[in-house]
């Protein structure tokens, strides 16, 4: 029963549950938005990369065009001519591998390659070795006029044209030249000779010119390398009781590995491709005692009109330089 005193207008309140509205969370919104924009960003990035590639190619195209016209195309033609017997004017006849076989069967061609390897001793081994010693000695000098003068004097041969160097040394090697005058002055008359005309001493005499030319380059480059070595390493070596020689082999020599690789690469290429000095000084003589591939290629092309044989020797020389230089470059890249 309902109590009599309960108000009539009183009603039982009912609980009204509002409808649940499902809304996406902000994280979900961002994920869906990023997923939707990823393809757009990728396409935009790809377009930017293509634009950069095309712009880079446009900048490189002129230089590459010149390189292709004046280097790659002649190289390809040389390879082609090496399989033909051609005098440079008339029709060419196929020669197969005859021009290549001649490099190993004709003594004057094979000896020219061997002479180039002999010149590596004078163009590379001696300049790099003497350059290391000279750089180490100059490093010990106090900065001043004498140190600067020593560097300039050593580097002057590298600045002079090789033709001028060849002419100057031809005069000094003559019968009444400076070399023979010095020998007579010290009582060694029996050693005087026409150095560039002697079958035994002509090639070493030309090699000495190479030593004189390359020594300055190697010395200056190695001096720059020594300047980059941390002085603390030398101080630590001295604290350990290392002397000058031990310090050189323990600190200086390992720190100059990259510079030595550069010197070796440059001088080996100069030895194998030597032309200027020998053409001016001896022209490959006496006989074929100082003949090198560069002079032989010139003679075969312009004097004997054997363009096919000259092309084969030129391509062989280029491959030989790459084969000799490649392991040296690999050694320089190792850590």
TrEMBL record:
SUPFAM superfamilies, sorted: MetI-like
Membrane-topology descriptor: Multi-pass membrane protein
Q: Which residue windows are transmembrane per the record? A: 56-76, 114-138, 150-172, 201-224, 260-281, 310-328
Q: Which Pfam families match?
A: BPD_transp_1
Q: Which organism is it from?
A: Kribbella steppae
Family matches, as PROSITE patterns: ABC_TM1
Domain of life (superkingdom): Bacteria
Q: One GO cellular component from the entry? A: plasma membrane
Protein known as: Raffinose/stachyose/melibiose transport system permease protein
> In its keyword annotation, does this UniProt entry include Transport?
yes
Q: Could you tell me which residue ranges the ABC transmembrane type-1 domain spans?
A: 109-326
What subcellular compartments does it reside in? Cell membrane
Residue ranges, compositional bias (Polar residues) = 24-35
Q: Name one GO biological process term.
A: transmembrane transport
Query: Which UniProt keywords are given for this protein, alphabetically ordered?
Result: Cell membrane, Membrane, Transmembrane, Transmembrane helix, Transport
Q: What are the boundaries of the region Disordered?
A: 22-44
- The answer to whether UniProt assigns keyword NADP to this entry is no
Similarity annotation: Belongs to the binding-protein-dependent transport system permease family.
Task: Give the organism's phylogenetic lineage.
Answer: Bacteria, Bacillati, Actinomycetota, Actinomycetes, Propionibacteriales
């Amino acid at each position: 029963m309902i109590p009599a005193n309960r108000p009539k207008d009183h009603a039982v309140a009912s609980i009204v549950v509002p409808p649940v509205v499902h809304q996406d969370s902000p994280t979900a919104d961002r994920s869906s938005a990023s997923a939707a924009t990823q393809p757009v960003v990728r396409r935009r990035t790809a377009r930017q990369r293509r634009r950069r590639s095309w712009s880079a190619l446009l900048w490189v195209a002129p230089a590459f065009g010149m390189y292709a016209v004046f280097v790659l195309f002649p190289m390809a033609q040389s390879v082609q001519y090496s399989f033909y017997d051609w005098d440079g004017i008339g029709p060419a006849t196929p020669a197969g591998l005859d021009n290549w076989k001649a490099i190993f069967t004709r003594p004057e061609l094979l000896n020219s390659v061997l002479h180039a390897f002999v010149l590596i001793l004078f163009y590379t081994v001696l300049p790099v070795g003497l350059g290391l010693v000279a750089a180490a000695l100059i490093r010990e000098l106090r900065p001043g006029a004498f140190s600067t003068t020593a560097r300039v004097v050593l580097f002057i041969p590298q600045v002079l044209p090789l033709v001028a160097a060849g002419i100057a040394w031809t005069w000094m090697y003559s019968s009444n030249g400076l070399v023979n005058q010095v020998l007579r002055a010290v009582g060694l008359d029996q050693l005087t000779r026409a150095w560039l005309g002697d079958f035994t001493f002509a090639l070493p005499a030309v090699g000495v010119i190479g030593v004189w030319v390359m020594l300055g380059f190697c010395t200056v480059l190695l001096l720059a390398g020594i300047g980059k070595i941390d002085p603390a390493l030398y101080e630590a070596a001295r604290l350990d009781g290392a002397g000058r020689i031990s310090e050189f082999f323990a600190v200086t020599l390992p720190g100059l590995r990259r510079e030595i690789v550069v010197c070796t690469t440059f001088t080996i290429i100069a030895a194998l491709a030597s032309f200027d000095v020998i053409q001016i000084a001896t022209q490959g003589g006496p006989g074929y005692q100082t003949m090198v591939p560069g002079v032989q290629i010139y003679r075969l092309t312009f004097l004997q009109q054997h363009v096919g044989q000259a092309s084969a020797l030129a391509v062989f020389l280029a491959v030989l330089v790459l084969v000799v230089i490649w392991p040296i470059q690999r050694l320089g890249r190792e850590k």
